[in-house]
Amino acid sequence: MKRLIALLTTVVVTAVSSAFSSPDATAEEPHHDNVLITYFSRAGENYSVGVVERGNTDLLAEIVAEETGGELFRIETVREYPSAYDEILTVATEERTNKERPELKTSIENFGSYDVIFVGYPIWWGDMPMAMYSFLESYDWNGKTIIPFNTHEGSGQANTVTTIKGICEGAEVMSGFSVRGSVAQNEGESARTIVQNWLDNNNFNKIAEKKEVHYTMQDIRNLQDFLLGRHTEEDLSGKPYDLTGDERWDVFDLCLMKKAYINDTQTIDTTSSATITTDQSAVLETYERFEQAMIDKDIDTLNDLVTADKTFTHMSGKVQTKEEFFGEIADGTLNYYSYKLNSPVVTVDGDTALLTGSTTLEAKVCGASGTWTLKTNLHFIKQDGKWLLTDK
Ligand SMILES: Cc1cc2nc3c(=O)[nH]c(=O)nc-3n(C[C@H](O)[C@H](O)[C@H](O)COP(=O)(O)O)c2cc1C
């Protein structure tokens, strides 16, 4: 299920709308923006294939990318592994014995925008290379679908799928597939058939498409109408906000969004710049610096502007710590592009203050973007002469 996750934070209410992608992706050349093929592979001398320019898993990963239309991501370590076969056997044994986590040279940008992630590796000593542990332990796999694939020279998958399930909490880990290294290296078409068969047998396109949601401008208008209570059943059918479908999580989110949406008739007093006090001005400055830091992904500044125990609440009611919320901004799950504060009212009471009004935000959340005007209701506290965002 594409989780149309909208974040209602105590700072902003952000709704999700459009990815603006065409629903008519061509059938011949598959393309899925939300599919990533990650892999680790080593070139050089290897068992059964001699000295090779490209590793066996590397070649297999390319086939997977061609067959799925996903993007490729190579997992690379800072250390360079020896090309000679007898040397790599020794190095791999050492890493395994010492339970090492080799430092990685590459990391995935916009990890949050991928729903289906292939994870590819060779078998080393009946297990994944230790670099795969570094890799898998670096990300939050919650909600992802993982498809393991590997090359080997007799061990098959060994116990690696179970190991991946243990590491990647919250992910759906599929059965995956295995190809002999020598087949991937020398018999590309046989390897391709193995990949195609697995994809067909497991309804891969359905897996990817179920997670990938295409929106049109009309969909966004419909969604806005829904938020304003002007929807019809027809408008809503077939989309993640389908009230009659089984996307209950999304509907729940959207109902909360609707409640939060500014649809009020009350007039908000605008704070006039002529009468603004120093404290009101400082509160507004904290707010503006915070919004700008969200856009800039400036985590240091974000941390600087909130109290130590500040939490952020999801639409669904899920509460995040500031570390979790800022983490999602940093890793690209949440992206903010612009903000505009409308009709602000700052009420200062001693060392506490309340900022009300609305904020128009341009954002991209979990791969879907939109512009939304939503209610702002923020609490501040003055600590050591500095106004910080705080929980109520
Ligand atoms: C250090 C090392 C250990 C290996 N251990 C195993 C093993 O336990 N079982 C097996 O079937 N193949 C094993 N192999 C063979 C590789 O899994 C196989 O050659 C694989 O296709 C290599 O993939 P790559 O070229 O992408 O690195 C090992 C290879 C190396 C280099």
CATH architecture descriptor name of the domain at 35-203: 3-Layer(aba) Sandwich
Distance between the termini: 34 Å
Compute the CA-based radius of gyration. 25 Å
- Overall 3D form: elongated
Order of helices and strands: EEEEEHEHEHEHEEHHHHHHHHEEHEEEE
Number of helices: 13
Mean pLDDT: 79
Give the low-pLDDT segments.
1-27, 212-217, 235-275
Share of helical residues? 25-40%
Characteristic terms for this protein:
392 residues; Rossmann fold; Nuclear Transport Factor 2, Chain: A; six-stranded parallel β-sheet; four-stranded antiparallel β-sheet; 16 strands; elongated; binds flavin mononucleotide
Provide a descriptive summary of the structure in words.
It is elongated and about 75 Å long. α1 packs across α6. The protein has 13 helices and 16 strands. The longest helix has 19 residues, at 278-296. Among the domains are: 35-203, Flavodoxin domain (Rossmann fold, 3-Layer(aba) Sandwich); 305-390, Roll (Nuclear Transport Factor 2, Chain: A). The chain has 392 residues and is an alpha/beta fold. Bound molecules: flavin mononucleotide. Flavin mononucleotide is lined by residues 41-42, 46-47, 55-58, 88-89, 92, 122-126, 151-155, 181.
Describe the SSE topology:
Layout: E1 7-8, E2 13-14, E3 35-39, E4 44-46, E5 50-52, H1 56-68, E6 71-74, H2 85-97, E7 116-122, H3 130-136, E8 145-152, H4 160-167, E9 172-173, E10 177-180, H5 181-186, H6 188-201, H7 204-211, H8 217-227, H9 233-236, H10 248-260, H11 278-296, H12 299-304, E11 311-313, E12 319-321, H13 322-330, E13 334-349, E14 352-365, E15 368-383, E16 386-390
Parallel strand pairs: 3-6, 3-7, 7-8, 8-9, 8-10
Antiparallel strand pairs: 1-2, 4-5, 11-12, 13-14, 14-15, 15-16
The structure holds flavin mononucleotide.
